[in-house]
Amino acid sequence: MTETTVTRKSKWRSRNSKASRARERYIERLEQKQAKGRVIQQATRIVMDSRGMSEEDAYQLLRTQAMLKREQIETVAGEIVKAHETLSF
């Protein structure tokens, strides 16, 4: 093999490796976003059931609480789910 061929293969591997890492990071972000959505949905259902609210009103309550506490909605939702699991035995 010539030096040029080795250099080209090395560059190709480097680009391919970077693309692979970028894909992995993208997939990881999507999975995290999906998990957050599930927690928010769970908390919304808990609020709906416990307060007799519509889904829209329950979600709005979660948003309002998150804003008042200056936290992300998934944090508030996680607290609700955790409390519900603790109290449901």
Order of helices and strands: HHH
Helix content: over 70%
Indicate the low-confidence ranges by residue numbers. none
Outline = rod-shaped
Q: Roughly how many Å apart are the termini?
A: 69 Å
Count of structural domains: 1
Overall mean pLDDT stands at: 90
Strand content: under 5%
Structural class: mainly alpha
Total strands? 0
Describe the structure in your own words.
This protein is mainly alpha-helical. The chain is built from 3 helices and no strands. The chain has a single domain, classed as Winged helix-like DNA-binding domain superfamily/Winged helix DNA-binding domain (Arc Repressor Mutant, subunit A), CATH 1.10.10.10. Helix 1 (3-51) packs across helix 2 (55-69) and helix 2 crosses helix 3 (73-87). The longest helix has 49 residues, at 3-51. This is ANTAR domain-containing protein.
Which descriptors would you attach to this protein?
89 residues, mainly alpha
Write a concise synopsis of the structure shown.
With 89 residues, the chain is mainly alpha-helical. It is 89% helix and 0% strand.
Topology:
Elements: H1 3-51, H2 55-69, H3 73-87
Region (Disordered): 1-23
Protein name: ANTAR domain-containing protein
Biased composition (Basic residues): 8-20
